[in-house]
Amino acid sequence: MRANLARVGPEVVRSEGDFSRVALPNADADVLRDLLLQEEAEVVLEIGLAYSVSALAIAEALISHGKRCAAHLIIDAFQDRFHDAGWKAMHQQGHELRLED
User: For 74, phi and psi rounded to 5 degrees?
Assistant: First the structure.
């Protein structure tokens, strides 16, 4: 999913070129994933979801550890401005999502 997202971008963007301006480059997302794996992170707090590139990399790391207690809390008051593209990408990847107000 993340590789495809990097290759073709999300289905909907806020404006032309927004994805390339806002989203974490895929190579940097690989670095983030690898760092979280190296540190054996179990809990990650992410501020801002946007198009979910970093969130998908974080999820890859947490799932790879296989620990039941792993948690990824995402706070994004502006996801609606991204047409919920980030939430949709996470859901399409099969990640269990719980929305709290």
Answer: -115, 130
Name residue 69's amino acid.
Answer: C
Q: What is the pTM of this model?
A: 0.89
- Tell me the domains of the chain and their CATH numbers: 2-92 (3.40.50.150)
Q: Are 73 and 93 in contact (CB under 8 A)?
A: no
CA distance 80 to 98: 16
pLDDT tens digits, 18-40: 999 999 999 999 999 999 999 99
